[in-house]
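Handout, section B. The chain below has 83 residues.
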Amino acid sequence: MRATEKLTPYTLSLAGVTRSLPRVEIAPGVVIAILNILGDTELTEAVAQANLTIDGDLHFNFATDASISFDSVNVTGNLYNDN
C-alpha cells in the first residue's frame, strides 16, 4: 500500500447495530480494523442482549487485558474461576 492510499472503512454489524471501523496498516501488507467500544452503550447493550439468547460455545479473542478473562473461560468453562 502506498502512503498516500486511503483505506476504506470496514463495516461491522453486531446484534442489529452497525459501525464503520477505521482500518489501519500496522505493517507492510497487514491491515486491521479497530473497534473502540468505550462509551458505546448502544453496541455493548445490544451485544449483551443477543448473547443471552445464543446457544453453544462462545469464543472470544481480544487483544487487550480482557483476553485473560475470556481465555480463562475457554479453558475452564467457568466465567468466575474461584481456583
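Note. The chain has one domain: 10-76. Compare this with the example in section A.
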